[in-house]
Amino acid sequence: MEAFTKLNGMACPLPLSSVDTDQLIPARFMKRSRAEGYGGFLLHDLRFDEAGAPRPDFPLNAPERAGAQVIVARRNFGSGSSREAAVYALVDYGIRCVIAPSFGDIFASNAVNNGLLPAKVTEADGESLIAALEDGAHDMLVDLEDCRIVVGNLSVPFTVDPVWRTKLLNGWDDIDLTMSQADAIKAFVAADVQARPWAMPRRGG
Amino acid sequence: MKPRTLYDKIWDDHVVDEQPDGTCLLYIDRHLVHEVTSPQAFEGLRVAGRKLRAPQKTLAVVDHNVPTSDRSKGIDDPEAATQVAALAENARDFGVEYYNERDVRQGIVHVIGPEQGFTLPGTTIVCGDSHTSTHGAFGALAHGIGTSEVEHVLATQTLIQKKAKNMRVTVDGQLPPGVTAKDIVLAIIGEIGTAGGTGHVIEYAGEAIRALSMEGRMTVCNMTIEGGARAGLVAPDEKTYAYLKGRPKAPTGAAWDEAVRFWDSLKTDEGAVFDSEIRLDAASLPPIVTWGTSPEDVVAVTGVVPNPDDIQDENKRNSKWRALDYIGLKPGTKITDVTVDRVFIGSCTNGRIEDMRAAAAMVQGKTVHPSVSAMVVPGSGLVKLQAEEEGLDVIFREAGFDWREPGCSMCLAMNADKLKPGERCASTSNRNFEGRQGFKGRTHLVSPAMAAAAAIAGRFVDIRDWK
């Protein structure tokens, strides 16, 4: 996984609350292989009209937001379905950080597993960031080492679970880490077979 | 020892390793896999040359994108067919038991787990699907995970987790006639909001929860994620054991007796502390209908569409206006004046035998309204078979319902079952999000009996007055 330390990139405001993962990627696109990339499906039904034409009033479609790497949204971003495809759509589009006052639990862990930073800010700071972007700011600095976001003269702190922060900073892969604990897992299973013999599945039934 | 909650106990039983920062490696007893959120996980294993840590603790089934029409001649949609074939291949290559689209045991992953006795109290269960919370009805710690985590569980049979907070929702008293488990959980979400349970595991308790059947408890736990909590739990009791005993994968003989003794010890201890507590009175609950595009947008069937202008917070007010605009309703409209074009009875929320019976009881001897297209999608092949043995399919068909093959179907519209733009649906599923049941489709979440009555009347009706 690509490490995340500091990002200086185009930011786009998305002043909506509870952008659920069904919005981030409608289910009908999840039958596709990711080989072609999911970026085109990101927020599809908000970005495009029935004929498939971009909606001019949707923030991500503004020409000056082309190449956005950061999204600033309102509370409860990524609620709903556990589909990691929602994160794939963001990442494949080029987004590396979403800033919001709160996130859906499953979305946030999926994000971190793909090197996408879910940065939590206070409601007030979130509104200030959205206002700054709507007033014409474009570039945003997201510094994971200092947990700080800077846009123009505005500088606000953000929070992220410390374990997730370490993982993102180092670009660690969970499976590699867990594989190094194979002996502990083996010992757990050996004890568990004695403690909960009924929990061993009956194959075939 | 400090008094512990049901969640604390299951958690403690599964900790393989704990780091000083509280990060734990949690052992996973059961892993359910379906065709949509697993391909990349298996691909990751292949690329890294990894095997499954415990294939016998994994069960695979197709449900999300399979058509609910006759499947005996294959699947027409090439994308769906490819994804289904990939799961079959992955199951074969990695040694996982798999129910294909023609297997009578096939069905929605959260219906078949309990049905097969794969779901057991006191176990940890995960699946790449947020409604894995359903299995909490059995006193299992069960929650949805993403595809990276699916790969992690396949490879290691563990998950890296931090412990969540404890929340208890107590539902006292007795449900009035016509009010169901679905109404309980919609009322709870209306109360706490869609982010109210974020970071928590919810234990459901109280007289009304105890009185629910296992099917009803599954309906409540299923929608826990709609309140933001990953997992919901109900302490196992005699009903749980009666449901599970004799199921194909449930323990037998001495192992069963030992299991029951263990399960009896799982109840939350007297004096255990919850980080937050909510109380509801079942006796005061009405049949509920959602009016907006979030499961928290609930109103009594006797009520009217609320006026967002009554909301103080500007962002919230705007978002509710947006919801009304999408759903095509005006404030003040009586819910019983809202007409429907489609009715969907099914899903992991309400696709079990009890749901089929409740819906059939409403429609017996009646006819679907001429302007309504109504479908029933059983949650599994075994639910379908049972319903047909009871003659429920005949009741539905004679009333004008479409009786379909099992799967997720129009709950998330990945197959051909979807709303057309602007169509309004009374649905027994779990999400009324924009576009969930089809592009520009409008969803109202209700109980099976309410959906069935809406199919007959062509509009929402208070089933307490149903004749």
UniProtKB/TrEMBL annotation, chain A:
<dbReference type="Pfam" id="PF00694">
    <property type="entry name" value="Aconitase_C"/>
</dbReference>
<dbReference type="InterPro" id="IPR004431">
    <property type="entry name" value="3-IsopropMal_deHydase_ssu"/>
</dbReference>
<dbReference type="InterPro" id="IPR033940">
    <property type="entry name" value="IPMI_Swivel"/>
</dbReference>
<dbReference type="GO" id="GO:0009098">
    <property type="term" value="P:L-leucine biosynthetic process"/>
</dbReference>
<feature type="domain" description="Aconitase A/isopropylmalate dehydratase small subunit swivel">
    <location>
        <begin position="1"/>
        <end position="122"/>
    </location>
</feature>
<keyword id="KW-0432">Leucine biosynthesis</keyword>
<dbReference type="InterPro" id="IPR050075">
    <property type="entry name" value="LeuD"/>
</dbReference>
<comment type="subunit">
    <text>Heterodimer of LeuC and LeuD.</text>
</comment>
<keyword id="KW-0028">Amino-acid biosynthesis</keyword>
<keyword id="KW-0100">Branched-chain amino acid biosynthesis</keyword>
<comment type="similarity">
    <text>Belongs to the LeuD family. LeuD type 1 subfamily.</text>
</comment>
<dbReference type="InterPro" id="IPR000573">
    <property type="entry name" value="AconitaseA/IPMdHydase_ssu_swvl"/>
</dbReference>
<comment type="function">
    <text>Catalyzes the isomerization between 2-isopropylmalate and 3-isopropylmalate, via the formation of 2-isopropylmaleate.</text>
</comment>
<protein>
    <recommendedName>
        <fullName>3-isopropylmalate dehydratase small subunit</fullName>
        <ecNumber>4.2.1.33</ecNumber>
    </recommendedName>
</protein>
<keyword id="KW-0456">Lyase</keyword>
<dbReference type="GO" id="GO:0009316">
    <property type="term" value="C:3-isopropylmalate dehydratase complex"/>
</dbReference>
<comment type="pathway">
    <text>Amino-acid biosynthesis; L-leucine biosynthesis; L-leucine from 3-methyl-2-oxobutanoate: step 2/4.</text>
</comment>
<dbReference type="InterPro" id="IPR015928">
    <property type="entry name" value="Aconitase/3IPM_dehydase_swvl"/>
</dbReference>
<dbReference type="GO" id="GO:0003861">
    <property type="term" value="F:3-isopropylmalate dehydratase activity"/>
</dbReference>
Automatic annotation (TrEMBL), chain B:
<dbReference type="InterPro" id="IPR004430">
    <property type="entry name" value="3-IsopropMal_deHydase_lsu"/>
</dbReference>
<dbReference type="InterPro" id="IPR050067">
    <property type="entry name" value="IPM_dehydratase_rel_enz"/>
</dbReference>
<dbReference type="GO" id="GO:0003861">
    <property type="term" value="F:3-isopropylmalate dehydratase activity"/>
</dbReference>
<comment type="similarity">
    <text>Belongs to the aconitase/IPM isomerase family. LeuC type 1 subfamily.</text>
</comment>
<keyword id="KW-0100">Branched-chain amino acid biosynthesis</keyword>
<keyword id="KW-0408">Iron</keyword>
<keyword id="KW-0479">Metal-binding</keyword>
<keyword id="KW-0411">Iron-sulfur</keyword>
<dbReference type="InterPro" id="IPR018136">
    <property type="entry name" value="Aconitase_4Fe-4S_BS"/>
</dbReference>
<comment type="pathway">
    <text>Amino-acid biosynthesis; L-leucine biosynthesis; L-leucine from 3-methyl-2-oxobutanoate: step 2/4.</text>
</comment>
<dbReference type="InterPro" id="IPR036008">
    <property type="entry name" value="Aconitase_4Fe-4S_dom"/>
</dbReference>
<dbReference type="GO" id="GO:0009098">
    <property type="term" value="P:L-leucine biosynthetic process"/>
</dbReference>
<feature type="domain" description="Aconitase/3-isopropylmalate dehydratase large subunit alpha/beta/alpha">
    <location>
        <begin position="8"/>
        <end position="458"/>
    </location>
</feature>
<keyword id="KW-0004">4Fe-4S</keyword>
<comment type="subunit">
    <text>Heterodimer of LeuC and LeuD.</text>
</comment>
<dbReference type="InterPro" id="IPR001030">
    <property type="entry name" value="Acoase/IPM_deHydtase_lsu_aba"/>
</dbReference>
<feature type="binding site">
    <location>
        <position position="408"/>
    </location>
    <ligand>
        <name>[4Fe-4S] cluster</name>
    </ligand>
</feature>
<comment type="function">
    <text>Catalyzes the isomerization between 2-isopropylmalate and 3-isopropylmalate, via the formation of 2-isopropylmaleate.</text>
</comment>
<feature type="binding site">
    <location>
        <position position="411"/>
    </location>
    <ligand>
        <name>[4Fe-4S] cluster</name>
    </ligand>
</feature>
<keyword id="KW-0432">Leucine biosynthesis</keyword>
<dbReference type="InterPro" id="IPR033941">
    <property type="entry name" value="IPMI_cat"/>
</dbReference>
<protein>
    <recommendedName>
        <fullName>3-isopropylmalate dehydratase large subunit</fullName>
        <ecNumber>4.2.1.33</ecNumber>
    </recommendedName>
</protein>
